[in-house]
Amino acid sequence: MLIVMVMILISCNKRNIYTCKERCEKNLFVADVKSCIKKCLPKKDERWIYVLGAEGIEYWMDTKSIKKLNEDIWQCWVFAEVKPGGWGHEKTVEFLKKLGVSEEEAKTVRQVFRLWEINFRKKEYSIIQTSMYDEKGNIVYSFDPSLLRAFVGLPISKPITPNSDDEAMAETVELWR
Question: 13, 24, 143, 171: which is deepest, by most CB within 10 A?
C-alpha cells in the first residue's frame, strides 16, 4: 500500500484537482480517496497547494486560511502567480485598464491575492478582496470587488460553473472542510 501511495505522489507532480481526483478514484489500492487527493496536489510548502494553471497563470490555495463562516459558507485565500506574455497576464492587464490603471503599471502585476467565499448550498462564490502586486512586492491595485459590484449594480455572487476555475477552487476547499 505504501509503495502504491509513493508511486501516486511521484506521478502527480503539477497535477490539478481533477487529475488527482481521477487518479485516486481509479486506483483500487486507495481506501481514502480524499486523503489521496490531498497528498497528490503539489505544494509550494506546507501551506500553499497548487489548484490549477493556464497559460501564464498558476493558482495556489492557502490551506491554513480555509475558514468556516457557517454550515454552508467557507472562505479561503488564493494566490495567483502571473507570468508576462501569457493569457492570464493579458486578462489581468485588460481588467486593470478598465479600472483606470495605466497599461504600463498593469503590465507589472506578477502576484494576485484574492479572498474567496464559497457557498456550497447555493453553489455560488464571491471574491471578497483582491490585492495585486508587482515583482518587487509593491501594491499595484487593491480593492473590495463587492463594493465595485454594488456600485455598478452587478450581483455580488456568481454561480459556480462546471469544469471551470471556480469549480476547481470549490472542490479544493471541499477537501479541507
Answer: 24
